[in-house]
Amino acid sequence: MNWDTVKGNWMQAKGRVKEQWGKLTDDDLTRIEGSRDRLLGKIQERYGLAKDAAERELQQWERRYN
Questions:
Q1: I want to staple 44 with a disulfide (CB 3.0 to 4.6 A). Which of 25, 39, 54, 66 is the partner?
Q2: Pairwise CA distance, residues 66 & 50, whole Å
Q3: What is the number of domains present in the chain?
Q4: Which domain CATH number covers 25?
């Protein structure tokens, strides 16, 4: 997945992210600004996941989003 494209279309992508990870707040999504690393960190934080578990979830989401 090209995260430059996601970042450029972040307004549309935010809705899909929110569908997948409903615990992320609007403020979280604003701060993430399309950054994969920031999104990964927030998923870990909000859901109490280890980095590898959050990475797997994000990779699954990326496959669906493409």
A1: 54
A2: 25
A3: 1
A4: 1.10.1470.10
| Residue 13 CB neighbours (<10 A) | 19
Confidence band, pLDDT 50/70/90 cuts, at residue 65 = confident
C-alpha angle 5/7/55, rounded to 5°?
95
Which tokens hold the place of 3?
């995260």
31-37 long-range Cβ contacts below 8 angstroms, 24+ apart = 33/7, 34/3, 34/6, 34/7, 34/8, 34/10, 35/3, 35/7, 36/3, 36/6
* Residue range 26-38: mean pLDDT, rounded: 96
